[in-house]
Write a structure and sequence with these properties.
The protein is mainly alpha-helical. It contains 21 helices and no strands. α5 packs across α8, α6 packs antiparallel against α16 and α16 packs antiparallel against α17. The N and C termini lie far apart (72 Å).
Length: 520
């Protein structure tokens, strides 16, 4: 027993050291990206990849990744955080293009890459299909962060994030089928595949629905921020494992759970303070996991394998870019014909070029069993293509946005938002001051001085806001949109409070939503 205990302690220490080194390097890169002016222009995730490449070039390997644990450790938190922050109403408004891109886009990419590799290289068809499945999952984390920073239209972010979440599930399901077929453990006939597909998706959605709504109603019974935060963390991993054990898709289960908790459970079962705590926790966890994954993407590169498979990588890049262009422009046109979304050609171009590959593609490639004959080929090609999308496409998205004139007025909007926030806060201070006017012991002259000071600050802020909106008339629309969102939030919070105190059995849909949308 003593020997076993000593071995486990050595194993824990051996695993902990590389992890701490990875974390230290990641945080150092994060700090440098904010301190060095030149590096601020490079998205943080891309900077991590570059640092990882430099470490790989000098043959410094920070960690060895276990294929069996990669998907289980990295995927659930990344998927949960993205789905938690995705607005369900905006996703519904863009459901048609998102569904087209996530379902048919995945099929076109997988088939396009497989045909190109099968016809132009000596890569086996089964291996080519697996490479296509790995690379069918988009990872726009660095692009959407850039969108927020530059003030790009919210619809573009919603479509890109919605597509990414949905096609992650499609990619993982497709990868599982194709791997089983390549290993000789599955029948790829049409009927068995369709039956298995619906079972996998159905079990994943069902598990997510039960878990999401169950936790939503459970959190109505108490207001304990740390407990509710812990429940979301446990649910992200538990629902993934349970769905996989039941023969379903863990990815789809996690996305379903997070969508429900983020859009329904957090409103009926969490106080505003708890929602903020949980959201900040998931932002931290996503930053934490992304830091590790993107650093290891660069660090795990084997340059000799990249060199050997350079031809296959180039062909795959060309096939991927072409297949995505076909999917985006074809289904963008169809979507515009049958819906009112109306994605412009400029927006479709950004969706095409901004469809980067990243953590999910790498995780799928590395999760291949060591017994798979062409594992290193798949990993090398996938790594090479991911590097191209991150370093070439990722670093040219901002110039593309500028060329297409899609960069918004985010700095001006931020300035106006700060002025609105200060005005709101000072008005609340003034209201409180009026309530304590007759408090004993307060000098009347001091009271009048404070009242005059606050009113003067409010007047000055209102003058600055008016001047800013006169100089930039488009900001008036932003102010109107912000007020609409505030009104909807107040109404939704009122219904949630009534549910919490037992005056309603279930939360009502916002009545103002239809009225306000009808004005647009």
């Amino acid at each position: 027993m003593a020997v076993e205990s000593g071995i486990s302690e050595v194993a824990i220490e051996a695993s902990l050291k590389p992890f701490l080194i990875v974390l230290a390097v990641s945080l150092s890169v994060a700090a440098l990206s904010k301190l060095v002016p030149f590096l601020r222009r490079i998205p943080y995730t891309l900077l991590l990849v570059i640092v990882g490449l430099c470490l790989a070039f000098v043959d410094v390997r920070l960690a060895n990744l276990s294929p069996e644990l990669i998907l289980t450790i990295f995927l659930p938190p990344l998927l949960f955080e993205a789905a938690w922050n995705l607005n369900w109403e905006k996703l519904k408004q863009n459901a048609v293009p998102v569904a087209f891109y996530a379902v048919f886009g995945v099929i076109i990419v997988v088939v396009g890459i497989a045909i190109a590799l099968d016809q132009l290289t000596d890569v086996a068809l089964s291996t080519a299909l697996l490479i296509g499945a790995c690379l069918s999952a988009t990872d726009p984390v660095s692009v959407t962060a850039l969108f927020r920073e530059l003030g790009v239209g919210r619809r573009l972010s919603t479509v890109m994030e919605g597509e990414s979440l949905c096609n992650d599930g499609m990619a993982v399901v497709a990868f599982g089928f194709l791997l089983a077929a390549a290993m000789g453990t599955a029948d790829l006939a049409v009927k068995p595949v369709l039956v298995e597909f619906f079972v996998v998706v159905g079990v994943g959605v069902g598990t997510g629905l039960v878990t999401g709504f169950g936790i939503s109603y459970l959190t109505q019974r108490f207001d304990l921020p740390l407990v509710e935060q812990s429940l979301t963390l446990v649910s992200a991993y538990a629902v993934y494992l349970v769905a996989e054990d039941l023969g379903g898709s863990g990815v789809i289960a996690v996305v379903t759970t997070a969508l429900i908790l983020g859009n329904f459970g957090s409103r009926i079962g969490m106080s505003p303070r708890t929602r903020l705590i949980v959201t900040e926790f998931w932002e931290f966890l996503a930053f934490f996991v992304n830091s590790i994954v993107f650093l290891l993407i660069g660090d795990q590169i084997q340059f000799e394998n990249l060199d050997i498979n350079l031809g296959a990588i180039a062909i795959t890049v060309a096939a991927l870019v072409t297949a995505r262009a076909i999917a985006i422009y074809l289904f963008g046109a169809i979507s515009n014909q049958i819906t009112q979304v109306d994605l412009s050609l400029k927006e479709q171009t950004v969706l095409w070029w901004g469809g980067l590959r990243g953590a999910v593609s790498i995780a799928l490639a590395l999760s291949l069993p060591n017994t798979f004959p062409e594992r290193e080929t798949v990993i090398s090609v996938v790594f090479g293509v991911v590097l191209f999308t991150l370093l070439v496409q990722g670093l040219t998205v901002e110039p593309l946005l500028s060329r297409l004139n899609l960069i918004g007025d985010q700095p001006l909007r931020q300035k106006l938002a700060e002025q609105l926030a200060r005005r709101t806060a000072l008005k609340r201070v003034l209201q409180y001051l009026l309530k304590v006017e007759d408090r004993p012991g307060i000098d009347l002259e001091f009271y009048r001085y404070q009242e005059s000071l606050i009113k003067g600050e409010i007047s000055q802020i209102e003058s600055e806001m008016e001047k800013l909106q006169e100089e930039h008339p488009n900001l008036r629309k932003f102010a109107t949109e912000q007020l609409k969102e505030e009104l909807l939030a107040v109404e939704a919070e009122a219904y949630a409070e009534m549910v919490r105190v037992g005056r309603l059995n279930q939360e009502l849909s916002p009545l103002l939503e239809t009225a306000l949308l009808g004005e647009e």
